[in-house]
Structures are given as C-alpha cells and as structure tokens.
Amino acid sequence: MAEITIIPAKNQPSEIVRTAAYVRVSSDSEDQLNSFAAQIRYYTELLKNSTDAVLVDMYADEGITGTSAAKRPDFQRLMNDCRKGKIDRILTKSVSRFARNTTECLAAVRELKALGISVYFEKEDIETAEISTEMLLTLYSQFAQEESISISKNCRIGIKNRMADGTYKNPSAPFGYEYVDGKLRVNPEKTAIVKRIFEWYASGIGMSEITARLNLQGNEIWHRGTVRSILTNEKYIGDSLLQKRFTTDTLPFKKIKNRGEKEQFYVSGTHEPIVEKSVFDSVQKLFSEREKPSGFVKEISPFRRNIFCGNCGVSFRRKRQRNHVYWVCRKHDESAENCPIKQIRESEICAAFVRLWNKHQAHYKAILVPMLRQLEILYEKEKSGNFQLANLRKDIAEIKQQIHLLTVLNSQGTLDDAYFKSRSQELDRKLMTAKKQLRASLDDEENERLDELRKLIAILEKSEQITEFDEIKFGQIVSKITVLSESEIRFDLIGGIGFTEPIER
Q: Within 13 Å, how many C-alpha atoms sit on residue 118's CB side?
C-alpha cells in the first residue's frame, strides 16, 4: 500500500478589509462639529489592534436630516466610493444614524450587498453580510423612521403651542422689516416702498403695472407674486396670522399651504405697523373685487402655466367649449396663420399622463436608475477635472490624515494631552472651513438635478399604477408640458429629463 504523507497547509496572509465609518450628527453646532475628531479616535481605537482591517476613510454629515439620503453629501460620497470598489465594509453606530427612511436604508443596503460590501450596525448588532438579517434590518429601520416622524411631530406640537400663546416668531422677516434682538423692527428704507405699493394699488394701479414701476426704480428684481403677497400680508398692520403653511405628518415631509386643513392663530399687535389699518382694509376690499368678481368662482387647473407650444414657444390657454375643456396656443387662438398647432382636449392630456406614469412606475429600475448612475459618474468625472475642487479635496484628505495620525500618536501615549487637544481643535476648524469651501464650489445646479432625479425614483418606487389622472402625482414629477403637435406632447419631469407621449383619440 502506498505511503501517504500529509503536507500541512501554509498560513496564508489574511486579506486586509478596507473599512469605512459613517457618522451623522443632527446639529451643526460647534460642539457637534468638533466631535468629528472624537469619532475618528473611536474608530481608530476600534481597529488599531486588528490585523485584517484598515480604516480607509471617515464619512460624516453634520446638521443634515436623516430622512433623505439625497441631502447628505458625505453619504453620497460613501456610496460613490463603494461603487468605485474602494471599500469592503462599513461601520456605523446605528440604523437611525445610517438612515431614518426605511425605503432608502434598504435600497442602500441592498445595493451595497450586491457590490459585496457589508454594513455593521453596532447598536443593533446587525451584520448585513448575513442574509437572514434583512428582515431584522427592515424592522429597525422602520423604528428609526417612526422615531424621525415622532421627533417631527413633537417639534410641530411645540411650534403649535407657541402659536397658541402668541410667542411664536417666524424665522424670516417680511419685506420692510428686520429682526433686531429677536424682535421685528421697521426697516426705514424699505418701509417707503411698502407704503408706495399700497398707495398705488388703492389709487387703481394694477399689480402688473406696480411690478413694472418697481423694476424701473430700483436694483431689486420684482415679481407680480411678490407684490401680491405684500398687499395681502397682515404683517403690515402689526398683526400676525400664524400657520399659513404646515408640514405634512408622513414621509417625505413637505410644507404645503394651509387651506383650512389645520387651525390658524391670529395675533394682534405683535409688532410695529407700516400701513394704517383703514388703508389695508380698503385695499383688501378692492383686491377681493378685482381678483374674484361677484358670482364667479375661478377654476384652478393643474396644467395652469405648465403647457407651452412646441412651435412658437408661447404658453397655452384654457378654453371651455360646450361640455369639453381644451388647451390652445395663444397665437393659434388669435389666428390659425400665426401657429399651425391646433387645440387639444384636457382629457387627452390627462390620459397621456396616466400612460406615462404607469410606464415609468413599471420600468423605472430599467430606465431611470441606470440613467442616474451614469449622470453620477459623469458628474464625478467633471468634478475630478476641476482644479479648485481637486485642491480642496486634497486639503480635506490631508487634514483627515493629520487628524488620523494625531489620534494614533495620542493613543500610543507619545503626545502631551494639552497639545493633542489644541491641535485637534485647530484641525477640526480647518476641516470645517475646507468642507464649507468645497460645498460652495460644487455645481449646485447639477447637484440639484441629481437630487431631483433621486426624488423622482423614490416617488415611483413608493407608488403604484393609476387608472385615472392624479393631480398630486402630476405635481410631484412634472415640471413642464410641451405640445409638439396635435398628436404628440412631451412631459419634462423633475431631474431635467423629458419623454414624449402620443395623444390617443
């Protein structure tokens, strides 16, 4: 029988796990911002004795809500670095620090899992590398979402109580006023403009003419809506109507106009008036007569100011003929020779939107998600080619490296505590300044476009197919309609993307 010799296996060097840490603080106060170094110390201490893990980078969002990932720049940077293959594992304190929106939390974890990256939630002791933990993660992220809703609700209750007892203060001062020592004070220069607006309107001059006069007289750009808000604002007689707008109770939180859904509070004599009450009352009466003629109830369409002609570019107007409502190019309506595009029924536009919504709701993963990824890649390439941004990123990386090195030396006992503390604070301040400069240098318009595209995907992900026109869904995703012909229209959606849809008769 042949002799068998067992050759023992050699000890293979363990693969180094590239580890990142994500933290989020809910306040942008100096105490919270200075905790960045403390967080680095924590994770450095956590990994310093490890032979198979190294801290790649620290990702921190300060003073930013956790209910939306789109509003957290370092979270987006973390996800982008993961997609580039720079990270193997992510450490975070808890589910609520990672995200307070169940849908976004699970979407991020699933994407990371697909990339072969695990997330460890310390508080809950959840390791996403284990397949069985997704249901547990769903539970905890739902708890985090409910916690966020509860916090928001408590804040709203506090605001409402201050409104009820007359102690609530609006965060911004209306035109003509300014906050001095926490109180509304009259701004002498702007007061004259406010008085002039009321005098003009009371004398019979319309809002459009008032807007034109103001634009000719000063450096500020005026709009008709601004003039309208001044003429109807009770603040100018020294009173305050509170809760004109309110925040919705469910995610995603939105601030909407109060049309009677919530109670309001009228507080008299809260500050110095600019306009006499008799003048204000006469203007309100005149305004009511001009804007709402007796016996006529104005019908507001969701398409108002949203439909434009693809041939001449002018806006469409709404017309009612017999039992149907139509939208027609203003030039065509004056004469068919001015524009060849004929009128279309409002019901046909509604039906086209229903078809568009259902297509995108069913196929957004195949259409919009890859589009978002490509735009993010292009945006990152553009930013990487920006010399100023590159220098700022380099400075931030160097400061973080200094903080890291300082922390390691201190943990080894080679630094004086007083020096360590003063140097840490100095580096924290430098890091704060550099990050602010970076945020200011980024292309806000492109960032906003990516945020809107993420918002569009989130809306479609949380919605279902529809069988009839939904005004709320239309308002959420459509920014403009262009009538290309009487048989085809284009919907421009948030995020700067457009899709054509045929008119079916």
A: 13
